[in-house]
Amino acid sequence: MAIGTGAPPRTLRGGLDSLNSRHHQLGLRLFLFIVVAHWAEHLVQAYQIYVMGWPIPEARGVLGMPFPWLVTSEWMHYGYALIMMAGLFLLRSGFTGRSSTWWNVSLGIQVWHHLEHLLLLLQVLAGAHLLGKAAPTSLIQLLIPRVELHLFYNTLVTVPMVIAMYLHTRASRPDNATARCACAPKG
Questions:
Q1: Is the pTM of this model over 0.70?
Q2: pLDDT tens for the chain, residues 1 to 187
Q3: Per-domain residue ranges for the chain?
Q4: Which 3-state string (H, E, C) describes 114-165?
């Protein structure tokens, strides 16, 4: 923060402004790559469980096969939740109109998802699990098994994010008249 102004330092403001104007399309593409890669991991894990019939501890997705500790690391899961929340937050001001509303819905859901992962991480660090469960447990995981819950959360975050991107990249949308980026082709 700049001293006495309550505003972020000029370099931070300039970087965020650049990310949400001339580099918004690149930022969205990189962020989407991360989201799709994460989805691929969950879908492969679900395939391993439900199609191939593997026991859950052995269904580790693509990266979890050569690096099994990744699947059981709450740090890795928390880190991804934090990256998702940061990406949604940092790219947020590039959206306008209805696309902004959908992007903010996705961000709000991800904030909750992040809090659930923080709860899981805190249980690991404290060595004590919620309600005496055998493994770290999130609040919603009390109702929905973990594999299905991750698919559910990812869907809840991804659907409004994709709607926002779709609306944001359509030149015909009146909302895009005020966009500062070149994500929508100029018609």
A1: yes
A2: 445 555 555 454 567 888 988 899 999 999 999 999 999 998 999 999 999 999 998 999 888 889 888 888 899 899 999 999 999 999 999 999 999 999 999 999 999 999 999 999 999 999 999 999 999 999 999 999 988 998 999 999 999 999 999 999 886 767 777 788 888 776 5
A3: 10-173
A4: HHHHHHHHHHHHHCCCHHHCCCCCCCHHHCCCHHHHHHHHHHHHHHHHHHHH
